[in-house]
Amino acid sequence: MLAKTKTFSFIDKLTLELEETTQGLLQLVLKSEDGKICRKTEKKIGYDKSTFYWEGLDELPYGVYTVECSQGDDVVKVKTVKRI
Questions:
Q1: Which of 3, 15, 26, 66 has its CA 20 to 30 A from that of 48?
Q2: What's the CATH superfamily of 2-82?
Q3: Are 4 and 76 in contact (CB under 8 A)?
Q4: Residue 3 to residues 22, 52, 55, 61, Cα–Cα distance (Å)
């Protein structure tokens, strides 16, 4: 699985582009710079390529975050920045 953010930073929602996925359950975890879990969500996805929109992130403090995308044993980590 390949994952990347549409843009490096976000304000209130995060857009992830996922490639080479398999059909099934995708688990997403948003962690702060110190490793604390800020948000978790799951989504059923199809084969090949998907776009995931993670909304409701406007109340998070500004800073650097890591998005962990996992599907089965496959885990991808993507850095992103919450900005003004």
A1: 66
A2: Macroglobulin (MG2) domain (2.60.40.1930)
A3: no
A4: 13, 10, 17, 23
